Amino acid sequence: MSCGNPEGAVEGEEKEEVLMPTSRPVRRVDKAICNRCKKAKTSFIFRQGAYCSPCYEISLRSRFIRQLHPPLRPGAVKSTLTLYRPVVQSGQALIAVSGGAGSVAMLDMLMSRGYISRSDGAATNRTKGQKEAVWDKATVVYVEFASVTGRDERTEDIRKLSEDRGLGFIGLKVEDVYDAGLVSWLGGSERNADTSGVKVNFQQPNLPVSQEPTTSNTTPVERLQSLLASLPPASRPSLLSHILDHLLTLAALTLPNVSQLLLGETATRLAQRVISGTALGRGWTLPLELSNSFTLPDSQIVRMKPMKEISVKEAALWCRIHGLETVNYRGWDDVGPKGKEGRAKGGAASLEALTEQFIAGLSTTHPSTVSTINRTGDKLVFPGDTSGPICPLCEMPTEPDAMRWKARTALTSLTDPHSSLGSPTIAGIHTGDSTHDNFAPTLCYACLTTLSGGATDRTTGDGMVNLPPWVGQRVSTSQRMVAREQMREEIADFLLATEEE
Amino acid sequence: MAPSPCSLCHTARALVKRPKTGQQVCKSCFYSVFETEVHNTITEGQGIFHRGEKVAIGASGGKDSTVLAHVLTLLNQRYDYGLDLYLLSIDEGITGYRDDSLETVKQNQVEYGLPLKILSYNELYGWTMDRIVEQVGRKNNCTFCGVFRRQALDRGAAQLGIDHIVTGHNADDMAETVLMNIMRGDIARLGRSMALTTQSEDTIKRSKPFKYAYEKEIVMYAYFKKLTYFSTECIYAPDAYRGHARVFLKDLEAIRPSAIIDIIHSGETFVLEQSVQKGLKEMQTCLRCGYISSNDLCKACALLEGLEAGLDRSALKQGQSTLSVVPEGHRIIPRFERPVPIAVEGIERAVQSLAL
Ligand code: SF4
Ligand SMILES: [Zn+2]
Ligand SMILES: [Zn+2]
Ligand SMILES: [Zn+2]
Ligand SMILES: [Zn+2]
């Protein structure tokens, strides 16, 4: 609308404020004295108030516990959920540590409160009120991205951080996704056929795949780099994030007896995820991504995000107080060769990086931004079925009918979707057609966007790029599922009733 | 650079890069996909219109409503929707802004042969925006304007016996609304704001046929079709938070053009906790003017009472005066009479629901 106030202008009904509610006026309190104990001198001033150092730690810890306990006590009565420490868990905790403030602070809180018994036999310091450990064993997993970001390796720092605390340590590298021996290295047995030779052709919109014998003259790093290089810069952080998810999930499923996977995702990161996930078209699965108690597919392992009420600033302050070193910059926004694609004015190349900058900027004038966004995120529920088809790349459920939706709202061909009998085309992909060799129809809405524009001018030679083996494996699985649907379609006229499955 | 062929018809020379898909297309294919997408939006599912329906196009003289009037007239003929189209304009009484843009609307009236009705704040409420701003200042003016415009459109439609208003909200507006609602935690609205058509129990239906049309493409369409529109910003337009969200959206679009449509897609797939969905207030009618309201007094009556009483800021606080008695000497809004067709439809619907 030309008046610059579209919503207020027409949908003004019931709305108190057309504009964003402004930052609440700071409560008029004495900032010199801790708001909590009302005795000690203030050390830190936050949006919520002013704290002395011990009170600050108590505040952080109680928010941590509020998120940590409930998933460990399923079925417990709500009001008692956070009060008592959960019983000893049956398996071990796998703690994902990136070296950023969120995960380092999480690790420190878990250890300093004796949630994990030290496997090196060092006596736990059972001073006053020290409680029983919740995990008998825990392993730290770290994924090194240095080979693609060009930053300093931190594997040894994280190893030391973990081993100093008597924890097991697994150091992975991002390029390990291309390593056929990864599962057995983690201690599992390879069950599936070798799919390390599956290649995709980015020059065609339906992304045909083909199986070729692995050419042994490329290293995993080279393969990953060529995959990244063939994607538009805006898509690379998404790909890296799916690889990270996959490696962590794989470690959780493969290492012996893991019962929980703990991630140090802060409130700040979650808020970024809400916004960037929305912008990436991942709205449908967003509630699963945000969840603090998500059960990994085909397992009993629960993925948790106990730092979800603590901002990255607060976590960083915790680390500073406790003398813990952190690196908070991921550097995913400028991996791979520069593209000629658009960038935002501030220089961000991806929706993720832009969102990060946007939220950080907004938080300075509207300090409640992160918590407000997360409040919205918390209210979303996943409406679908987690046992349906899975997207090979992000390994999340694929939303039914999404492609048809896109084909109608953003036409990329002139065939009338009505006349082609429910087989609309999107970027030349015939979603109802034979899909045996095509990658595109198996992908979810967002991942198809991520991999589209994997460009002609970027790939060299025949345009064929190696897919990570897990993706190749998933493609063949989901193709079997599609094939079944086609079978049903072919015999549809002869089926008298829908069978109960 | 060598001219490349249109990637849709493969024959004509490509003239533009489509903002929405990035495809290089010729002029006539651009028209074709743009119009077809609007047609798809209109006809999805049961479709938003029915034959013989009287539909008012909320026309401001800006680009969105100008192009909407053009495209709807065209599609109505091409696909024989059988619609009775009207132009409905609201004159807020903003000197140097609205009086100019209303000229555009009058031009559209002649061009498309559509009947035009103009309703002014002045005749309806006894106040122009100029005078309101004089009294309340530049802070909450859009709150008044938004409430007054919504009700004015409904009243204008009712006077014409129309039960369906279409507005020019475009994809950028929709995406921005999704982001805004997330950022301000407006969860109840997050669910509702994405609907193509909204109709609360008793009000007139409202639809947004351009909800998937990119702003850039609307401008492109107007440019090639040589449609004229009025583009000056309202002199009272605010530039606070909404501005941030708009800039952010444009940046997202610069990085990935499909971001706008992807945000809308996310917005449409969001499902909210039950408790949130139920949280909406029960509706009744305003004791003073008969307009649909969640309180004894509708927003417009409450705001008007404040204006009349010479209050400025406190006029915004609703619920202070819930009396149906009008303070002496105050102007009031004429009673809201709903068009007949909707009542019949309402009965039909009631019967249908009984029959089920
Ligand atoms: S910007 Fe101008 S026309 Fe739009 S709502 Fe505000 S005062 Fe009214
Ligand atoms: Zn204190
Ligand atoms: Zn996916
Ligand atoms: Zn063409
Ligand atoms: Zn009223």
UniProtKB/TrEMBL annotation, chain A:
Subcellular location: Cytoplasm
Main location: cytoplasm
Gene Ontology BP terms: protein urmylation; tRNA wobble position uridine thiolation
GO molecular function: nucleotidyltransferase activity; sulfurtransferase activity; tRNA binding
SUPFAM superfamilies, A to Z: Adenine nucleotide alpha hydrolases-like
Region named Disordered: 1-20
Pathway: tRNA modification; 5-methoxycarbonylmethyl-2-thiouridine-tRNA biosynthesis
CC annotations in GO: cytosol
Family matches, as Pfam families: CTU2
Swiss-Prot/TrEMBL keywords: Cytoplasm, tRNA processing
Family indicated by similarity: Belongs to the CTU2/NCS2 family.
Known role: Plays a central role in 2-thiolation of mcm(5)S(2)U at tRNA wobble positions of tRNA(Lys), tRNA(Glu) and tRNA(Gln). May act by forming a heterodimer with NCS6 that ligates sulfur from thiocarboxylated URM1 onto the uridine of tRNAs at wobble position. Prior mcm(5) tRNA modification by the elongator complex is required for 2-thiolation. May also be involved in protein urmylation.
The name this protein goes by in its record: Cytoplasmic tRNA 2-thiolation protein 2
Organism encoding this protein: Tremella mesenterica (Jelly fungus)
From TrEMBL, chain B:
GO molecular function per UniProt: ATP binding; nucleotidyltransferase activity; tRNA binding
Location of this chain's protein in the cell: Cytoplasm
Example GO biological process: protein urmylation
Keywords: ATP-binding, Cytoplasm, Nucleotide-binding, RNA-binding, Transferase, tRNA processing, tRNA-binding
Transmembrane segments annotated in the record for this chain: none
CDD domains referenced in this protein's UniProt entry, alphabetically: CTU1-like
Limits of the Cytoplasmic tRNA 2-thiolation protein 1 C-terminal domain: 284-310
Binding site for ATP: G58, A59, S60, D64, I90, G168, D173
Short name of one Pfam family: ATP_bind_3
Pathway(s) per entry: tRNA modification; 5-methoxycarbonylmethyl-2-thiouridine-tRNA biosynthesis
Assigned EC number: 2.7.7.-
Class in the EC hierarchy, top level: transferase
GO cellular component annotations of the record: cytosolic tRNA wobble base thiouridylase complex; mitochondrion
Residue ranges annotated for the tRNA(Ile)-lysidine/2-thiocytidine synthase N-terminal domain, each copy included: 54-232
Function: Plays a central role in 2-thiolation of mcm(5)S(2)U at tRNA wobble positions of tRNA(Lys), tRNA(Glu) and tRNA(Gln). Directly binds tRNAs and probably acts by catalyzing adenylation of tRNAs, an intermediate required for 2-thiolation. It is unclear whether it acts as a sulfurtransferase that transfers sulfur from thiocarboxylated URM1 onto the uridine of tRNAs at wobble position. Prior mcm(5) tRNA modification by the elongator complex is required for 2-thiolation. May also be involved in protein urmylation.
Protein family membership: Belongs to the TtcA family. CTU1/NCS6/ATPBD3 subfamily.
Protein name, per record: Cytoplasmic tRNA 2-thiolation protein 1
Organism listed in the record: Tremella mesenterica
Phylogenetic placement of the source organism: Eukaryota, Fungi, Dikarya, Basidiomycota, Agaricomycotina
Gene that produces this protein: NCS6
